[in-house]
Amino acid sequence: MPTSKKELRLHYKKLRKKLSEEDLEQKSLDITNQLIHLPIWDKTYYHVFLPIEEQKEVNTEFILHLLSGKDKEIVVSKSDFETRIMTHFLLTDNTKIKKNEYNIPEPVNGLTVPSQTIEVVFVPLLAFDIFGNRIGYGKGFYDKFLAECKSETIKIGLSFFEAVSQIDDVFESDIKLDYCVTPNNIYEFK
Which residues cross the membrane (predicted)? Predict the structure, then answer.
């Protein structure tokens, strides 16, 4: 099994490509059903990523339904690829979503929400290890964003696949997850 970020990134991108649409939908639903068991439902502001369909990311539409059913404030982001900074917006019925040049669905505009206000962040990832380290696409957007959040903000990775034993090249600036949820398991890193 590969253990470097680069090897793991390639390995899990390949595994994701093999998922059928039915697999993707079922696994995304299973992940959402697992989330119900987490001790996070007393919070108000939840940040959700909108999936890049071409990358076969977890379909967060189920999570959006779960959050709106619980009357939670939902926050989505827009990414600036020059500064690698994310701007967060409140998702409302009036929010227009448009795909950017990288096929990332993003809000066009709306009410901005400071990172410090966000209490729970659902984090996209390609792989994670049993220590709560995660691998994304390597651009550092989420590490920057999570560093801006309060220390008590709950960081929850969403993964179609189970944890690897270790990621070798973890940096000091990499922000660890508090939980990672897969279709079959909830990992807690405390």
Answer: none
Q: Point out the annotated binding site for substrate.
A: 52, 57
Closest CA to 162 of 137, 135, 190, 187: 187
Alpha-carbon distance of 109 to 168, in angstroms, equals: 39
Q: Of 86, 47, 77, nearest to 63 (Cα)?
A: 47
pLDDT in tens, 114-132: 999 999 999 999 999 999 9
Q: Specify the number of domains making up the chain.
A: 1
pLDDT, position 165: 95
Q: How far apart are alpha carbons 118 and 28 in whole angstroms?
A: 23
Domain that includes residue 181, residue range: 5-188
Q: Measuring CA to CA, which residue among 114, 122, 115 is closest to residue 61?
A: 122
pTM, whole model, 2 decimals? 0.96
- Give the integer Cα–Cα distance in Å for 104 and 125: 14
Quick one: pLDDT at residue 2?
A: 75
Contact 124, 105 (CB under 8 A): no
Binding site per annotation, positions for ATP: 5-9, 134-142
pLDDT confidence of residue 120: 98
pLDDT tops 90 at residue 13? yes
CATH number for the domain that contains residue 72: 3.40.50.10420
**Is residue 41 helix, strand or coil?**
coil
